[in-house]
């Protein structure tokens, strides 16, 4: 396990940008949203080492899934109390009712 401290449960991962490039690596820009700066510090780790390990593992998983090379850019952002913002909560797919199709 790469994180010695508990991974913050108030994390939201968003794909901000995805560019399919036929003559280059796919470009994927991701943000990890947390509620507190202390959570950001945990995810980044000392000298960014924890985030580097996370990004490398994620990139390898995505490359395996897509069967293509990717350039993965990850940024950790703090947005205080994002889970209490009903609009954001719904935007990220957590609100509403389950529909039977």
Automatic annotation (TrEMBL):
Please give one Gene Ontology molecular function term for this protein: RNA binding
Q: SUPFAM superfamilies per the record?
A: Prokaryotic type KH domain (KH-domain type II)
The UniProt record lists the KH type-2 domain at: 3-80
Q: From the Swiss-Prot or TrEMBL record, give the protein name.
A: KH type-2 domain-containing protein
Q: Does the keyword RNA-binding apply?
A: yes
Q: Which PROSITE patterns match?
A: KH_TYPE_2
Superkingdom of this entry's organism?
Eukaryota
Q: Which Gene3D superfamilies match?
A: 3.30.300.20
Question: Which keywords does the record carry?
Answer: RNA-binding
* Organism in which the protein naturally occurs: Glycine max
